[in-house]
Amino acid sequence: MSFAALGLSEALVRAVADQGYTQPTPIQAQAIPAVLAGGDLLAGAQTGTGKTAGFTLPILQRLSQTQGAVNPFGGRPVRTLILTPTRELAAQVEESVRTYGKYLKLTSTVVFGGVGINPQISALKKGVDILVATPGRLLDLHQQRAVDFSKIEILVLDEADRMLDMGFIHDIKRILKVLPAKRQNLLFSATFSEEIKTLADGLLNKPAMIEVARRNSTVEMIKQVIHPVDREKKAALLIHLIKTYDWDQVLVFTRTKHGANRLAEHLNHAGISAMAIHGNKSQGARTRALSEFKETDLEVLVATDIAARGIDIEELPHVVNYDLPNVPEDYVHRIGRTGRAGATGEAVSLVCVDEKDFLRDIERLIKREIPSVVIPGFEPDPNAKAQPILMGRGQGQGQGRGQGQGRGNGGGGGGGGGNGQGRGQGQARQPAKQTTARAAPGRAPARPAGGGAKPGARPPAGAVHRTGGRGR
Ligand code: AMP
C-alpha cells in the first residue's frame, strides 16, 4: 500500500517521501481515506502509531482543494482547528502540518499558554488556515476577539483522553459552543472511558470508527523489563545502567517535578548530561531541553507524565520508569515513547518495595507479567518494609495559563513538589493495602494565572508558517 493509493495528492506524497516514509502505518491507511471522504471520525490510537500524519495529511489535502474565505482584516479565517492537551504536542503537531504541507500554499500557526499572547494575536490577525492550540489559551484569544471561528470546517481533538484527564472538558465545551455547527469532527484518543464516549456521542455524527492498537495494550514491539531495587539505590542503578550499556538517549520518568529536578542534578554530578522538563519550567527551557535531547546533545531527559505527553522523538531507544506511575494507564503512555512506528525499543522500570501495588495494577492493565531481572550489586533487601507513597498536596502539574488542571495526585518516590494548582488529596497511600484508584482530576480554577513560564521565552508559537509556496 502506498500513500498515493490512499488518494493523496502528488504534493503530499512527495512531502511524505521526503520524510523517508515508504508505507502508511495502519492508522494512516484507515484514517486518510475516511477523512478525505469528509465524514466524522472516532479513532483509537496512541501516540507513536503515526496518527498525526493520519489526520494532518488528509486535512491538508481537503483544505488545498477549496479556497477559503477572506476575513474582515483581509487575512484568512481559520479553517481547521486542532486542539491538543499540551504545549509540546501542539508544537509538534504544527511542525507536522508544516512538514507535510511544505509543497502546498496553506498557512498554520500554534498557540498555547506560558508565552506572550501578542505575537499570537498578530499571527491570527494575518489569518491562518490551520490553527493548532491548547484549550486555555485558545479561549483567552477568543475572549479577546483575536480569533474568528466562523469559518471552521474541520475540528480535531487530539489525545482527547488526555485533555479530559487534565480537566479541559469545560474549556472544550465552551469552544464547541462557538464553532459553526456544520463541520467535520475528528476525535483521537488512546483510551475510551465513559467520559470520552459521552464526548464522542455529543460531538460526532455517524463517525467512521478506527482502532489500531488494542485498548490499553502496550506496544508489542517494546521490550519491557523490571529491575527490583531498593528505593535509595535507584539513582545509582540508573547511572550504572546508562554507563554500562552506553545509553545515549534516555527518557526517564519520575512521578514528581521535585523528583525530576533532583534526579537530573544527580545524573549531572555523575557526568551524565541530563535536564528535567515539567510544568514549573519555562516554556523556553522546556523547548530547549527537548531540542537538545532530540539532537542527542543531551543524554537524559527527565520528565513528569504531563510534561512528556505527546513528546515525539523518532526511534527513542530507552524509556526508564524511575518511579512507577500511580495511574496504570500512564505506564502505557510512557513506554509508548519508545518503539515508535515500527522501531524497537526498551522500557526499563526500577521498582522498589513501595511500588508493588502500582506494578500489580499495571500488569493487570496490560494483561501480562513484566519480566523481572535483578542487577548484580543492586539486589534489593528482602526485609525492606514498604513505605507509604505520599499523595502530596497540590500535585497538579500545571502547564501554564489554562493548563493548570493537573490530577491532584502524584507525589512520593522522588519527593514532593507540584506547583499547587491541582487540588491534591494530602493523604498517604499505603502500598499493599489500598487499590490504585485513579485519583479524581484535581481541577484547578478554570483560569489560573501564569504557570511559571515567562512571557518572552522564545516562543515557537505565534509565528505564522506558510506550509509552502506563495500565499494565496
Ligand atoms: P505520531 O503517532 O503521530 O506521534 O507519530 C509517531 C512517529 O512516527 C513520528 O516520529 C512520525 O514521524 C513517524 N511516522 C509517521 N508516519 C510514518 C510512516 N508512515 N512510516 C514511518 N514513520 C512514520
Written account of the structure:
- This protein has 15 helices and 16 strands.
- The chain has helices at residues 10-18, 26-36, 51-65, 87-100, 118-126, 135-143, 160-165, 169-177, 194-203, 234-245, 257-269, 283-294, 305-308, 328-335, 356-366; strands at 41-44, 80-83, 107-111, 130-133, 154-157, 184-189, 208-211, 222-228, 250-253, 274-277, 300-303, 318-321, 345-351, 389-391, 427-429, 465-466.
- Strands 7-1-6-5-2-4-3-16 form an 8-stranded mixed beta sheet, sandwiched between helices. Strands 8-13-12-9-11-10 form a 6-stranded parallel beta sheet, sandwiched between helices.
- Helix 3 (51-65) packs across helix 4 (87-100) and helix 14 (328-335) crosses helix 15 (356-366).
- The longest helix is centred in the N-terminal third of the chain and has 15 residues, at 51-65.
- It is elongated, with a radius of gyration of 22 Å.
